[in-house]
């Protein structure tokens, strides 16, 4: 580890004139000082009620200016919500945009990072156009969209850095000129010292060290995590001391680790220049531990740090404020005079104040026409209904009315005037209805990319079979599918536990590492969070990753990454970023607590923004993969664990046929009852149908194929028109995925109106299945359970024809 103790004039100015050097230093100070004023003013705006909440980068300004000097076009940042000074210094954000985000302004272009959807200091750059096509990422300084969960940025950081390794070492990717220049791009990460206590941090640090990728992680260390000091956070109270074992040496690869004081401007500049050069040129991960930082305004606008810091600590912080120390150094080095600094600081305060006022006024001005319209409409209606006058008067007198207040007034007026029809009311009602689409775009759009390559735009090609089509194991169907697609598209890569050398535990990738090389088919360690992050980062850089989780049960270890980051990416950036990673896993119908694999409701509740594919066999899975390989939206594909050795017919066009997402399929037509199921329980239902036929009971069996989206053509409700009875069978917990399916059919598809009896669900027990075949039988739906449940439903409808079994 290099503990940097550099002399005060450590900036190499040998090729600069004094005036040039002076200009650079003064500009850096100006950026830092303006950023501090933005923090001070931003906090005030929250405390006066103009903004909901604020969190700022005060105390971290000088190291972020130094970091920005090393950040080049094509590089990527995956950081956290203290990096505003970096964003200003790198030209990624203006101060006006910073305030527009603080006010959550959804007006087009006001908050270019999230369209008003994220709180301040959550930055992102435009990776894609409105149609989903990629920009030239080598020509811009890239920022992957920030998320609030501390440490959450670490998983994707691994993938962003790993992409540079693939671009440098896989010459088949040289044609992707808009994504990389010989893998020279560095992935910059930032994190607070307290968040280094999280598991995802250690997982990411280890993964990057193993992979040897150009990842440069900066740790902003102000010795606290909200109110909790370092002695409760970190062994030895020093994360770089803890991580010394990762330092590379002459025999073993590892990290370059630097330690530098956050108030030492010249030392910071030298460390970042030196460290990032090593990272960029040698593809060695770098850790820069920036110590002795302060947080002058405390953690956030939710409280004051005077409550938990001692007087001595507060005194030390005031003396070691990085801006104050930089100011002292500039004066001591005769770079600038006191008078020049006073004038600069005065101008900076005015500049920031003007930017804040402009952002606030633009935010209000965007809503004033709506406010005036609603006031006018309600005032006109009040001629016939005096009680409405109070509503219009109150709205008119609200000087800083926001859209919520405008719509509360409009909706209340509409409700109160329900029995008083008038032309004025019709005008208000028409205006209100027309705002639905506009507000949907402002606040609800872009859950998915919905671009020209979205899954619903992929050409549907049916699987082709003939008399020569072979019957093979299901795993061989998948293997052939992956083989053909890897030969077709060099962007495809796959990685996961046991995926490479042995071809995954069920042999779907057997022989493919030998054929396509370790860069494309790769083993990983046991690290589910960063396997997902690896996929997200690669996908954000234009590659087509398959990130494998060995069993569906293990996906829980990575659910935070998928839910917080991947699922919300398109939405939280309002469609300026995408990450079309495919998460491949397997579940259902094995045995035991940890390999029973059906926590579907957990996925449905946390992964809106992804497609959730639940193929019943490997042919359907292959068709879904073929669709996803050609599309540009993320998905989870859950293969059936007990289907790999079942025989299936191998399609002649195994790498080309596609299964459209969201289209349910009627597997067996029937007349008495509609049974909806998916995955492995479909075979259970089909077996039960044979026995029920003996009783004269005819089942219509429907496979939704995907749960997100679900049956977009309303196949289920169409079936109910015929059968009038509904049973949902699945392996999730009671009231889990089956409840979701009922809501989709009965509410969204209006299936309720076709029922002549109570709809039923048949699911697993509330606990996970115990080990063994007996445990499986008594815990998950069996053929007996399906037969008896359906028979009971028929008995309830017609007891004379179907006498009670028990």
Describe this structure as you would to a colleague.
E1 component of the 2-oxoglutarate dehydrogenase (OGDH) complex which catalyzes the decarboxylation of 2-oxoglutarate, the first step in the conversion of 2-oxoglutarate to succinyl-CoA and CO(2). Residues 472-646 form the Transketolase-like pyrimidine-binding domain. The chain is an alpha/beta fold. 41% of the residues lie in helices and 12% in strands. The chain is built from 27 helices and 23 strands. It has a seven-stranded parallel sheet with strand order 1-8-9-5-4-2-3, sandwiched between helices. Strands 12-11-13-14-16-15-21 form a seven-stranded mixed sheet, with helices on both faces. A five-stranded mixed sheet has the order 18-20-19-22-23, sandwiched between helices. Helix 8 (265-282) links the parallel strand 8 and strand 9 (286-291). Helix 1 runs antiparallel to helix 10. The longest helix is centred in the N-terminal third of the chain and has 30 residues, at 18-47. It starts with a strand and ends in a 9-residue tail after the last helix.
